[in-house]
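The methods section describes the discrete structure representation at length, but only in general terms. What matters is that the chain and its backbone geometry are given together, residue for residue. For illustration, here is how one protein appears when written out as sequence plus structure tokens:
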Amino acid sequence: MHREDIETFRRRVHDELHGDIIPFWLTHAVDGEQGGFIGQMANDLTVDPTAAKGLILNARLLWTFAALSRFEADARYLELARRAYDYLDEHFWDDRFGGVYWRVDHSGRLADDKKKIYGQAFYIYALAEYYLATGEAAALQRARALFELIEQHSCDNAHGGYFETCNRDWTLAEDARLSDKDMNEKKSMNNHLHVLESYTNLYRIWRHAAVERKLAGLIDIFEQHIVDADTLHFGAFFDETWTCKSDTYTFGHDIEGSWLLCEAAEVLGQAQRAAAVKDLAVKIAEAALEQGLDDDGGLFYEGKAGRVIDTNKEWWPQAEAVVGFLNAYQLSGRRSFFEAARQCWEFIECRIVDRRHGEWFWRVARDGTPDPHEPKVSEWKSPYHNTRTCLETMRRLTTLGKGG
């Protein structure tokens, strides 16, 4: 690989992060009226001042600004990380039962008191990043408390893994769905993927034997239950005993999981486990490349039985594909993976970046037409995926440029 190709790629990613993504969120995210951050903004930048404020958006904002502050010294990043940290502490933390609520209204009053484990995990992920940025002991203490609550109330000690949703008092909820489009099953790939992600970051700051054991167990769950050994796709929904209850898969989760599993194994520092995970990651990336990548460099959304059943291209699978294919290149040395990562980035630049209003469109159709009806900011639309992709891609390309 020519160093000039690597440096050109890195510079383009750098310019998108600093010229578009960061300025957008610095300019538009803060809620100057009600505190914290706005809950929803339409694609044309129209803000809904009455929109609820979700845990996922706020936790991802905390992670984003903390990660940026670790990347480069800029007081604005740390200021907004502190704003997110304080808002979550004041409005989302449950002083009675512990854990964080799923949603508050526009003024910060409780709107949904469910303890969805996906949300608890993202708060751990963000708190760990904030601790890495600031060294504040309270952030570590809160992350440890959340870990213990998840393990006490959500862990399935009989069959392994984690149940999806608890009520406010941490009893298991009958409705386990993360969102209306999900199946009401006991366990999901998506939940376990982000618990894995959060425990990886937690282990970076708290080298406790319990976290090490649970993180290793999550890798085992993916290898034994979630990854289909024949198709190399992730199953989506499962019952209590890990019988798969769904027959579709999302290419974005596949490619995202491929590199997050590697990251988890590397943080654990267990050589034999890491070697097995890296081999699996390359195979998962190969399946995503062969079946999910369109000729224009964009990653399709969903597949079933070897066929693409949703040709839309959402922003987050494109972001994760860049990192996932670049990771597979670093592991295998296969030029096709590097080219796939670069093609995905070019697709993002050409189709996903909103050149008029800034930031990224939620989705585009296969013909490249953006969907103007999806929000630019919402409970599910944040700077987490694209900021992380930029930081990870620049880091990896810098390593490659040095011959690593």
